[in-house]
Structures
1.
Amino acid sequence: MRRDNYRIFSEGEIAELSLPNRLVRSATWDPSIVNSRQMSKEVLNLYKELALGGVGLIITGGFTVCNQQSAEDDSNGWLLGYDGLRVEGIEELAETVHSSVADCSVIAQVENGSVNAAPSEFTSAFSKRTYRQLTVEEIGDIVHCFVEAIVDMKKSGFDGVQIHAAHGSLLARFLSPITNNRNDAYGGSISNRTKIIRDIVTSARKSVGKFPILIKVNCTDYLVGGTDIDSFPDLATEIERAGVDAIEVSGGMWECLFRSEKELGFRPVPAPESHTRIGSTEKQSYFLKYIEKLDIAIPIILVGGNRDIERLEEIIGKGEVDFIALSRPLIREPDLPNRWLEGRGSQRTDCISCNSCIYSMHHHSDRLVTCVHKDDKSLHGVAQEWLSTWVERVSRRQ
Ligand SMILES: Cc1cc2nc3c(=O)[nH]c(=O)nc-3n(C[C@H](O)[C@H](O)[C@H](O)COP(=O)(O)O)c2cc1C
């Protein structure tokens, strides 16, 4: 049975952007182009396939805007700002999507690269390193790198940008009370912790005007003392005040993977935002409960474990969520939106949420991320072993 009359297949809007349906490809890293800083035919083909597959909006994998590469660079400012990191031929990505399907939009995700400092000094259980506190001048440099990237994404033909402020990113660390103990204008209150986002958006708006600027944030850090279900509504309100056009709700700081499955309520394997063992309905759409108390007017994009079209239609029908984002299901089946629309096959995605795609991302820096479970079956066992021993290996690392 076709699903043409489903609300999920009705038009939606983000700022002045009209989208043909409510399905969004959530950012999924493209290691080959970020590492080589050059666009590739394989990546262009993937984005063409995604557009033809019926998704209304594609959010690209994160593009790096600043990089401070080694411990020795610690006090020498940014080794590479956005100019030195720009992917050659990036404009072909936007052009490919638009020429494949005229009403499919594409938004570029912008994120920091490796940085040896943090909002306040902290030692990461993950990297085992102690990060020193950023100076106010360095915060200004970071803002500048994000703004340069946003301006370039507009020039390169993208329909908008998404600021990556979730998971373990530097901006996520500013937003979280657990990693931001500064006592200046960038720390303390929720308003101060969001100042870096306000600075980026305010400064970018001077050049890009109403160009859509989205953000991805944590609704929970899964860490004691971090952002959680009680503090997230106030954080979301401040984020809206910063002037962004839509908020994608994700969760999990990398350090949470050192907690037990019992404490977390999910299996601690890479990555914390991509839960495995998504079986029952309750385990699907696992960040849904965190948006129930939000009081914001900008569109909400729900990501994480969205797996069953009938369940998703129900969620969209209730009106609390405006868009549904998918990452792993579209690695498995880039044409899933059309398959669901046309009523072909199961109402559930074929993706089994095993996270072997994350193994693929970490081990094949020169290739596309693939669904190992489907395309490279002989590697699946190796990938699963790598995932399940990851926490132990990282804990042993000096
Ligand atoms: C292989 C892979 C790469 C990812 N790369 C990014 C990324 O570049 N930026 C980002 O914000 N999230 C990234 N994510 C997280 C996804 O966008 C998404 O939030 C998460 O996987 C949960 O959604 P899902 O259940 O639909 O996979 C990635 C996830 C996977 C599996």
2.
Amino acid sequence: MSLQRTAAIVLPLIIAFLFSPAAHAADPKPIPDKLIVLTFDDANASDYHTVALILKQHGFNATFYVTSGWVGSEKRLTWDDVRKLHELGFEIGNHSVTHPNFLDRSEDQFRAEVTGFDQACIQHGILKATSFGYPGSHFDRRMVRVLNELGYTTARRGSDPEAQWSDDGGIGIAYEPGLDDPFLVPGAFTRGSGFADSQGLLDAINMANNGKISVLIYHGVPDLFPHCSTSVERFKADMQMLKDQGCTVISMRDLSSYVDLTKRPRDIYAPIINRLGGFAVNPETNAKRNPSFSWTFASRKTNHSQVAYQILVASSKQKLERDEGDLWDTGKVNSVESKNIAYRGKRLEKNNDYWWKVRLWNQPDQKELDRVSKWIAAELISTMRKSLPGPYSQPVKLELN
Ligand SMILES: [Zn+2]
């Protein structure tokens, strides 16, 4: 084989390796504050005819989650439009063939809809998708497993069960890379008739800090359906706000530059369950030789209250960060008390520094369960029926006086 021929074969391989997501993942860039992922669902004609131009004017990237079975119908994209979006550098994401509630379908049916979309893209000269948008935000373990098997790297949901997500929009939660599973990336804000002012978007922008990323969900500009529609004026104002706020606006695919997408939680639901628990705010110590501890219960859910707590006191911050309470570990104490809990651990010396933190368990919220049980996976609902622990509070220094 000639040197030229070898080079002709090997060079593209090296280039393909250098630009593959895996190569990025090895050394992700630091995540800037106000990093925003922009997504558009349901293959509306406006994706190409209105949105694309506005995004290009601002230098923004985006993911268009296309439902392939809807392409070519009235007020939807044509395959020509989809290909042009792809050629403009935007990402085409998989939003299934027929947009069903997959909780009611078999694993084989889910697989068939994912690969059916992939085949339609290949037929029309469009790159195979690597991101999936759950239709109606219905997800479960089977779907996550199948997407992983089929070479997908990310998937986007709404924000339930942690934050109420509805058809007419809403404020969700920021994506926490390294914590959230890349196949369960939550939405931070959905534009819809219920959220037509600028506040929700501003909240979502401000949530994107300290390594967190906000994913925005839009539908048509305007949409076929009024509840999830965004007017052209509103959309232009939104994009201007992202610009004025100094946001970096990317597609789901671009996440691979910032996030090691191969890093996954030990359980895909663990981060979700962790957010469903109650948590402590304003942890305070009465710093005497025999201190006492207080906090306030907080929750994202209005009907929650504290039913148990666990306090850890440690001789170093490092021990506490490993959840080691070498001086005092109360274990789970079933109690609604949150004021002046007296210390009952090992003897404390006046000149030493100590550290403490607390976590809280909430009661299951029946109203919330009733609301979500029709469209959240049964396996997640059964967990939500239990009293759940929230995350530990930040370690607080205990200086005795
Ligand atoms: Zn949809």
